[in-house]
Specification:
The radius of gyration is 15 Å and the shape is globular. By secondary structure, it is an alpha/beta fold. Helix content is 31%, strand content 17%. The structure holds S-adenosylmethionine (SAM).
């Protein structure tokens, strides 16, 4: 069976956002998840409202809020992930995302636009991966980085 159309959330690629604060980024990731058949998870608090005009403009009709999984805290998120790997995508990693063998059950965790993730989250993840950049560049846009790594996970899973 094609994993992209499998209806069990466990067997669907998963992107988790840690306390996202820019509405257009989350909206863009919602669209990416919808197009790739990935599950979106959000660790609250979220820095904007889903009624925000800037959010709606980018999310368009791709938003299916009941399909997004919300966690009240990082603790609740990790409790739910005890049997699955959480892969933190961070500029602070040593390993590059293309060097890693992904599983369909992995959750790709991305940091907040303004501050990434706190140390307590860094300490709980199973693996940390970076997207290599030119020297002296700070970071990619959150939605762009999510698209890059999700595409690689899906490419590996389909092969
Ligand atoms: C705008 S960046 C946040 C920058 C923040 N100052 C930090 O230290 O993480 C938002 C998120 O995008 C992801 N990201 C952006 N560029 C990345 C890169 N080159 N490698 C890995 N993750 C990246 C990370 O998940 C990051 O937390």
């Amino acid at each position: 069976m094609d994993t992209m159309t499998h209806d069990k959330a466990y067997l669907t690629p998963k992107i988790a956002l840690y306390q996202p604060d820019i509405p257009q980024n989350t909206a863009s990731i919602i669209r990416t998840c919808s197009c790739f058949g990935a599950q979106l998870e959000i660790i609250e608090p979220c820095g904007f409202l889903f009624t925000d005009k800037r959010f709606k403009r980018v999310a368009m009709d791709y938003l299916e809020k009941d399909k997004i999984k919300f966690y009240k805290s990082a603790d609740e998120f990790f409790k739910n992930k005890e049997k699955q790997r959480v892969i933190l995508i961070t500029t602070k990693a040593i390993k590059t995302y293309t060097e890693f063998v992904f599983k369909i059950t992995d959750t790709l965790l991305f940091g907040r636009e303004s501050a990434g993730v706190p140390n307590k989250v860094h300490n709980k993840v199973d693996e940390k991966l970076k997207i290599p950049m030119k020297e002296n560049k700070r970071s990619l846009n959150l939605a762009i980085s999510a698209g890059i790594v999700l595409a690689e996970q899906i490419r590996q899973i389909k092969n």
